[in-house]
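Write out this protein's structure.
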Amino acid sequence: MLLRRGVTNRVVAEHLGVPRGTIGWWRHEDRRHRGETYFQPTDCPRCTGREFDQRAYAYLLGLYLGDGHIISKRKQHHLSIFCDASRPGLIDAAEEAMHLVMHQPRVGRRLRQGCVEVKSYTWHWTCMFPQHGPGKKHERRIVLDDWQQEILDAHPWEFIRGLIHSDGCRTINWTTRMVGGERKRYEYPRYFFTNKSDDIRKLCTDTLTKVGVRWTILARGSDPFNVSIARKESVALMDAHIGPKY
C-alpha cells in the first residue's frame, strides 16, 4: 500500500485522482484499525534537542515581542508577525527567520489592510516562545527563560534589530537655532522603539546598555512608551548594526 510505504498524501491523491482530504482520512482509518498511535513529526529544538540558528532566533524573538503573537488552536499554534506591506525586505526577513529556527512548519503570508501577516503553523511555537499566554503582552508579565537570555546575550544586536524592525523606526528630527542673528534649521537622525509593555521596554533598554547605546525615555502624554536614541555616537552605532526596514 502506497501510504504504508511512506508516500505522501499529496502524491497518492495525484496518483489516484482523489481529494487529498480523502487520502488523509484513509490513512487515519488505517492507523486506527491497526492500533497505531500517530505522533506529529517535529523538529522543535526544545523537544528534540537539535541545534538551531540562534542568531535567527534572537531576531525572531525581537519581532515576536515587538509586533507578533501566537494564536492557540486545538491542534496547532499560529505564530504571526505583522509587517508593513510597503517593506518587502522585512517580510522576507521574518519568513526566513521562521524557517531557520524550525524547518518543518509551514510558513505563509496573508495580506491585510496596510500590512502582511507572516504566519507559521505548528504546535511547538509555544515551546520556543514560553512568553505566550492569555491576553495582550503588555497586560501580562514578560520574563525570558534562562536559555533565551543566553541567546540574547550572545546575539544582542540581532535581538535589537528585531525590536526596531517590528515596533521601532529611524526618523529625521529637526530643530532651529539662532546663528549670527539668523534662525537656521538643523536635522538629525533618531531611533525610536515604542511598546506599551514595561517588561519589553526594559529588555530593550537593558540590551541597548549592554552594547553601549545611550537611550532616554520619552513620554507620549503621561505614558512613557517611547525609547529614544538620539546621541550622535549611539545613532551611528545603531546604523552600523541595525540596517533599514525596507
